[in-house]
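Annex B, item 7. Sequence and structure tokens for protein A, then protein B.
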Amino acid sequence: MLEFIKVPTATVFLTLLIWGLADQLATEILEITVPIQVREAPGSGLVVSQFNGTPRTITVRLAGRQRDIIAIRESRRNPIVIELDANRIKNRALNPFELSLIEELNSRKSNFRGCTIESVEPGILHLNVDRVETREIPIRVKPGQIQYTVSPRVEPTSVLVDILGSAFERIADAQPHILVDADTFLRDQPEDVALKLPIPLDPVIQTERGQIPARSLTPDAVTLRATLRQRVDYGTLQAVPIKLQTSPNIFNNFKIEFRVPNPAETLTVKISGPLEMINRLTSGERKTFAIINIGSTDTLNQAKYQFFRPELNLPPGVTLAEGETLPAFEIRVVPREIANPERAHAP
């Protein structure tokens, strides 16, 4: 009975062994087309891209056992992702960079487990590979149309710029700089005031050969300082009234006489000053007078004519236009007649 059982067991064992050997020895071929992505490894400082027109899929010819081929055929849908870091490209030219796909895939056994890669089409992938470099770049202030009493300047005067190494190599001798157009930020600012403005920087490097974008700036904003020159405008004041101004004592005890009878009661005056104030004065929003000040009797030569020149009550910053003068008037003070002399001497 025991011998009868052993014979079939040995037969089954031999059958399984033969099947196993057949599976090990049988080799199948598979050609599979898969997407491929090549990119820079995080933190590598590299920038990787494929040339325009470079295939985004590859065809891989595989040889392997039937069950491995079947497994790959059924599961190989995800793209192959290749990440390049600084160690992978050490001592090799960056642009253009040639990547041997068969070498790359053979080093990544997990992509086609259990199979041998016989060929890859295309065999070479042509890439753009560059390094990000950090350079210190000066900041320049663009000359503008605004007039300043203190010219615009920035703080700090330079920034750290992240830029592709190949790009910087092309502009290193072309005076690279970051440009600040001060007029853009100062055009509507108050005049004759020390200004201190935080302004953003445009991440573009200017050069004698044109401009190129920067990847980032540190810092990305600076402080702009300047003082705008007060803009001067001109205007004409029509019919400015002439007013006499004196003390009550003089007014009550003296008559004020002009040598020329019926002198002008108004003046026409040309003025200069800040545009806003000139507009207010010429529109009549703010009133202006030509004031003749008659001093105390101690300073007056009674009964004799003296020259008095009026003064305008102009706001700060506004003056007579260059070359403009106000006319002088001949004036004297005369004691008023006493209507009742006897009453004047009464105790």
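Protein B:
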Amino acid sequence: MAKLTIKILDKGFEFQQDEGDTLLRSALRAGLGFPYECNSGGCGSCKFELVEGELEELWPDAPGLSPRDIRKGRKLGCQCIAKSDCTIKVNLEHHSAPESKPERIMVSFVEAKPLTSDMAEFVFKSASAAKFIPGQFALLSLPGVEGDRAYSMSNLPNNEGEWSFIIKKMPGGKGSTFIFDELKLGDSIELDGPYGMAFLKTEIPREIVCIGGGSGLSPMVSIARAVTKDPQMAQHKMHMFYGGRGPKDICTPAIVSAFGDIKDRLTCYNAVSDLDLAREQEWSGATGFIHELVEKELGSDLTNYEFYFCGPPPMTKAIQKMLMVDHQVPFDQLHYDRFF
């Protein structure tokens, strides 16, 4: 099938869509700053309007579209495939233009490193270099699972082609269940990436705060590894917060210990939210929600920090409210991804 041409109204830009690709991914592969966040239909950041042409909507009822959006004919770039040449209306953003254009590649599963009873770091290898910025994610295409699954890298970019992901097995989750129960060593899957805007900003001199919940730990570990390894960031101090339901979910001390002797640069804080589990398992650390621990430990003036966080939408909403509303932290000091 010939490539289709997508024109952006009044902007003078156009790009080509490959067969089966979404408008969003095609635009990013062309190096354009099509606005987006989750790339999976949940956040609504990639809304656009169709001016001319024919589209296929992969998920017409995606939560990223409100009833008002639907009435006004707005659509999601991550959920639309052009069926003809099209003209669309969208406001491009310079900061959304990818530093490394996303590519589809094949990767082989080489190792799984258990972290908790339901979370592990899965390692894949590609023939080409693993190009991404710490904090970004990739989309994995899993056999028999409808729709790609977004997982953040936990390692550092490298020439050896290693891609690592901290993944939590979710009850009823088809993607994580396949990875934990059916994926075999040597199996190949398709990886599409890198994506994501919540990546490490090495030029910013402020102390860094990383906050993770569940498998939202993965990009925080990648960022922490970069901060502790990059000579350019040798003067940066870092505070790493992780929240789990119970004590057995807390795996950050073991991960951080592998970084070496960096006590003067990185401080790790952990909290469990289930008070019954905390008592049953004799947890002596902090309890409650992780954003409450951030406020307790650093709350004198949170505007002095650069924040990176990743986790379920309720967690990211609570952190964003605490930082922006309660402490007036400027929005441009917040970098986050939400899982849907």
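Comment on protein B: The chain has eight helices and 19 strands.
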